[in-house]
Specification:
The complex is a heterotetramer, with two copies of chain A (356 residues) and two copies of chain C (325 residues). Chain A is of the alpha/beta class and 356 residues long. Chain A has 14 helices and seven strands. Chain A is globular. The mean pLDDT of chain A is 97. Chain C folds into two domains: 181 residues, 3-Layer(aba) Sandwich (Rossmann fold); 127 residues, Rossmann fold (3-Layer(aba) Sandwich), CATH 3.40.50.920. Chain C is built from twelve helices and 14 strands. In chain C, the strands form three sheets. A seven-stranded mixed β-sheet of chain C has the order 3-2-4-5-7-6-12, sandwiched between helices. A five-stranded mixed β-sheet of chain C has the order 9-11-10-13-14, with helices on both faces. Chain C has a two-stranded antiparallel ribbon with strand order 1-8. In chain C, strand 2, helix 2 and strand 3 form a beta-alpha-beta unit. Classes of the chains: A alpha/beta (356), C alpha/beta (325). Chains in contact: A-B, A-C, A-D, B-C, B-D, C-D. At the C-D interface, helix 4, helix 6 and helix 10 of C face helix 4, helix 6 and helix 10 of D. The structure holds thiamine diphosphate (2 copies) and magnesium ion (2 copies). One thiamine diphosphate sits at the interface of chains B and D.
Amino acid sequence: MSLFDDYHPLKGKMFQILKPDGTLHLDMKPPVSDQEIFNLYQKMVFIRLADQKALMLQRQGRMGTYAPVWGQEACQVGSASVLRKGDWVFPAFRELGASLMMGVPLKTIYLYWMGNEEGSRAPDGINMMPVSIPVGTHPLHAVGTAWAAKIKGDKIVTVSYFGDGATSKGDFHEAMNLAGVFKVPTIFFCQNNQFAISVPRKIQTASETIAQKAVAYGVDGIQVDGNDLFAVYAATKEAVDKARSGGGATLIEGVTYRFGPHTTADDPTKYRREEEIEPWKALDPLVRLRLYLKGRGLWNDEVEKQVTEKAQNEIDQAVKEAEAVSTPDVEDIFKYVYAEMTPQLQEQMEYLKGTL
Amino acid sequence: MSLFDDYHPLKGKMFQILKPDGTLHLDMKPPVSDQEIFNLYQKMVFIRLADQKALMLQRQGRMGTYAPVWGQEACQVGSASVLRKGDWVFPAFRELGASLMMGVPLKTIYLYWMGNEEGSRAPDGINMMPVSIPVGTHPLHAVGTAWAAKIKGDKIVTVSYFGDGATSKGDFHEAMNLAGVFKVPTIFFCQNNQFAISVPRKIQTASETIAQKAVAYGVDGIQVDGNDLFAVYAATKEAVDKARSGGGATLIEGVTYRFGPHTTADDPTKYRREEEIEPWKALDPLVRLRLYLKGRGLWNDEVEKQVTEKAQNEIDQAVKEAEAVSTPDVEDIFKYVYAEMTPQLQEQMEYLKGTL
Amino acid sequence: MPRLNMVEAINLALREEMERDDRIVVLGEDVGREGGVFRVTDGLQARFGDDRVVDTPLAEAGIVGTAMGMALYGLRPIAEIQFDGFLYPCLDQITNHIGRMRNRSRGRFTCPLVIRVPYGGGIHAPEHHSESPEAILAHTPGIKVVIPSTPYEAKGLLLSSIRSPDPVIFLEPKRIYRAIREEVPEGDYTIPLGKARMVQKGKDVTVIAWGAMVREVLNAAEELKGDKINLEIIDPRTISPMDVDSIIHSVRKTGRVVIVHEAPKTCGLGAEIIALINEKAFLSLQSPIERVTGFDIPVPLLKSEHYYLPNPKRIVMAVKKVMSF
Amino acid sequence: MPRLNMVEAINLALREEMERDDRIVVLGEDVGREGGVFRVTDGLQARFGDDRVVDTPLAEAGIVGTAMGMALYGLRPIAEIQFDGFLYPCLDQITNHIGRMRNRSRGRFTCPLVIRVPYGGGIHAPEHHSESPEAILAHTPGIKVVIPSTPYEAKGLLLSSIRSPDPVIFLEPKRIYRAIREEVPEGDYTIPLGKARMVQKGKDVTVIAWGAMVREVLNAAEELKGDKINLEIIDPRTISPMDVDSIIHSVRKTGRVVIVHEAPKTCGLGAEIIALINEKAFLSLQSPIERVTGFDIPVPLLKSEHYYLPNPKRIVMAVKKVMSF
Ligand SMILES: Cc1ncc(C[n+]2csc(CCOP(=O)(O)OP(=O)(O)O)c2C)c(N)n1
Ligand SMILES: Cc1ncc(C[n+]2csc(CCOP(=O)(O)OP(=O)(O)O)c2C)c(N)n1
Ligand SMILES: [Mg+2]
Ligand SMILES: [Mg+2]
């Protein structure tokens, strides 16, 4: 039996390997080696620090509105690390973690949030799509790309990331349904972080789990502990392997929590009390992994210090580089709209230059 | 246990009371009296004949494109007959049957298909909405109206009718989800007639049943034999009673078959063979009901002749009246767009009059 | 009289009208507990309960489509679409249903409702948060489209919109949500739909602008005083249906026109105003009409946004151009 | 050379181009087995298989959104939206995604694709089947909008659209799908995007029209010969970006202009053309430009449709009006 039968969403079980106390469930083991776990832990630390840096930059007026990933590191690292070169990722707007995992330089990511379109251009060869602000609309693109690969006979998969709020949008439904009908090799990764801005998960849908929405489309669905790196990894791996071998789409609901504000423009005290957050703090994906690694003799304060310092240096370097990029030229806003600039845009650009 | 538990869509059972041979399932009985059944049968005959008349009128160039109900009479009669004065119906475009059940005069219905907007105006006091051509978009209105009634404390329900194809649209999803979250007193009645124009049900969605889509929204869903008047009636009754008493929405999938073309503009031989239709012919909702009534001593050829003749006379009268209505005035296309005609429309109307 | 900004003025209008009319239901994403991402609906849920101030799931077509259903039943829904860029998923419901129901049912079914949308650029927002879709809406039969340009105007126009028997799209220029403070009376007053506002009388050039652009034009007018150029500034307020008479009246006087809008130039509302003037005041025109607009490109991210938006400098240049023709 | 109608010409173009380019995938409702409700894709699935000619579920945003995803991967999807009225659910994907991807990723990701849509009135169709949304599309950055007016044109323009590196919305005037038959060569030929067609040279009045309206204008021109009025008829063909030079050139010559379109008058494409002429040929104009258009109302049902649509009579009246100014 597959994971998706064992944890069929209507069985009411959430898939978890690593318990909050850092120990494993009986009969379960991590999906990767200790060395690899340590690597992934390092990534998660890097992501958390890069995220905090962005929040700080925004507060200092050095960055625009930013949507922090804080708390969702295991979802993004666990899932994206399963992917291969050639696979495609379609993020929402909170995917700093997944972007880094795909190999997008932090400098590029920062550039985007600093308000420079160059930040939406992943390096050649890295199939990381730009942020999708219109909620729930981009899973359709992931379906289309995966479908195209299937038609061409390429064994790649695509992953779209989105939130619990996104599942209410019509486009999400059309994407799931199309993926089901055409057995498209795509993973719908829902990071259920309990909120869509101020709207709590229970007002978002009366469905008991997000995972069970898969039932409407004849595709597999699974609810995993999104703060358990191992569970996220294992479930995504199984979904990706299935997709790659022609088994079609999967909806993964990663149950997690947004520790930070929705974006830097948001004041969460308006809609949630500190006490609500407390129990989730105990489920912090980094804390849990640290406990595990410590149990394996791979982590102590000294190690943490090294990991953190290394990350901080890299992050500071990325900030420096991003801030060294000069303001875009006036031509830049015109020249990429079409393959060739239209006479209208030529004229408008010349006019604009004459007014500066 | 309620019907909706017994026939939970994931149990893989279709709710049926009256078997195709006209006998009842063991331990089951019709939801209404013999007299009422006979009345409903008369309605169904009337609907079928009025439908055929429309097809004929179209062929003779006396009517525009028309979407026949042929085969779906039990779905519409069984469900709409459960409703009370004050309830609202939001049809798609194949609901001649439901319209008549709601009390819209046949003349009005014909007028619409003859291309006169007066045909979209139900008589005062009858809450039958105009046809909705954009597929899958109107269940949202039914949700909104039911929600409004709930807010006002009125004990009415709304019903939207739509097809299997409509369930793929994003708006259907948003409607179901909203109805689930706000426990709205509405019935989603899907007439799964196996086709969306040429697209067969199995290409429409990979979900095994339409009914199970309800699982995605935390609302009840049930698959019923849509050609069994009793099952449709009983399921709708239970859903309506539940809605009226605050139990929220239900998705009903009536499994039926479109005997005719999609519309008069359609040539079904392009996409289905005569042999495919044959097995469904045996399931014709009228045939089955006739067998039942015969078994109860309520039907014979003579009765049929009377029922038919009476219907034909009424239908002919409706045609006559509809055709006696004169072409709309030029003012009519301007004067209902806003509560008060805008200066722009005044001017455009004057101009147009000057060109006629 | 209290001096309010536009957010406060709209909030006040909503609050007062909800007291007066219990058919009003406010619905949208984050409008309840949070009070809206711009705080426009702040405190309403606490006051009127969560039946009348509803946080919805994230579904724009759903919000607008259910609002229509509510209006059919006799409620007066006020839906909020959180940002301009998320109005596109509603265009189907607006165009194919809301704008047509009265007409197609020959008056039997109507759906008076208001859709409030913070719109336009200038706040350094993320992508899709700076759109100006007014021309698309003005091209859509059966709806009215209203855009206030000051707090006082916002309250009076919103009250008229809520009481309108027709569906109204109410576009709120988010850039000036908190930028202007002026006296806004408590209590009931309305500004009629379909009537332009004479922002400033003048004799040399008619400048037509709405929303946040009115302020830019006023700044340009200030600069132009040095050149002894007097602008007559008209704010249509209701852009559909447009108050053509007021515009034509002014053009007959000045003979020179500049139109300012943030939306892309091609097929923007400016084009329609030019067409109307061409039709009704052709012989009065002493120079070609100038458009100062956004460009036919997506609104750039914040580092380049200033390139895109019309500003006083560009307006001054356009005025001088029509003056020197 | 075969004499084809527009349906056949488009079918031929699709067939030939699919032979040449195996990246092309056709997708939409009923495009496969059925061959499209207008038979435009007839026989394609039998020829190219159901991987390349795909019957989709009923989901317009889904069709267009997945087409975009396919294009990102290097396929050349040709999506069909069955009727104009069902394009509205796609406007979000078109405006917020398809038209922006190249720009926002600074050229890294592009999505060349074609969205074919039968559009316009005149066939006595049900509600929502007679819309003319071209102005909305022309107001949308990052896409091109093409409208053929004859079978020959349709084939050549479609081939250019498919090969265009930019997304193209291809509006097919369904009213003349079968009304005109003309010689359409087999084999490859293209008509460049962005270039207008001189339908007929003339000296008195420039008439600008596209799609099914070109035929109406030609009929009007016929009538006007009796009055010795010579029309110069221009079909922009690509309405975004518009071939402004051709229009201005003609206006400089004639000084009088009539624009004809089916879409509602207010904020229709006619307004933009007037605005352009105002900007670039102001002094050449000898009379106000006339618009012969649909009205600011929903297209009526069949019994009243004739009231709505521009016809030769109205065009003749407009021409005479600009002549007698
Ligand atoms: C279509 C659309 N509607 C509204 C918004 C405004 N908005 C941005 S994020 C958000 C909530 C998203 O919630 P969810 O999908 O759960 O993602 P999360 O932010 O929790 O990661 C909203 C309402 C938007 N960006 N797009
Ligand atoms: C949004 C939309 N897309 C496409 C169409 C064209 N169309 C009309 S009916 C139909 C199929 C509808 O199928 P279904 O929902 O199963 O209803 P049925 O016709 O079988 O009753 C299509 C594609 C439409 N009317 N609306
Ligand atoms: Mg969330
Ligand atoms: Mg069907």
